[in-house]
Amino acid sequence: MRNLFLSVWQVITLITTTIGYMLLFKKCGVKRYWALIPFAREYHIGICADREKEGRVYTILAVISAIADFAMIFVDTKQLLIASISLIVLVSLSIAKLIYLVRIYTGLTGVFGKPKKWVALFVFFEGFVTIYWGLSSKFIPNKKPDIYSLDKQAKVLGTDIESIKDGLTVNIKERTAIDFFRKKVLLKDIHMCIPKGHMVLLLGGSGAGKTTYLNAVTGYEKAKASIQLGENDVYQDYAKMIYDIGFVPQQDLMRGNDTVAMTLHDAATLRLPSSVSIEERNKRIAAVLEQFGLTAVKNNLVEKLSGGQRKRLSIAMEFISDPFLFILDEPDSGLDGVVARSLFEKLRAIADQGKIVVVITHTPDRVIDLFDDVIVLAKDASRTGRLAYYGPVKDSYEFFGKSSMEEILLSINQKDEGGEGRADEFVEKYADYLRELVG
Question: What's the pTM?
Answer without folding.
Answer: 0.79
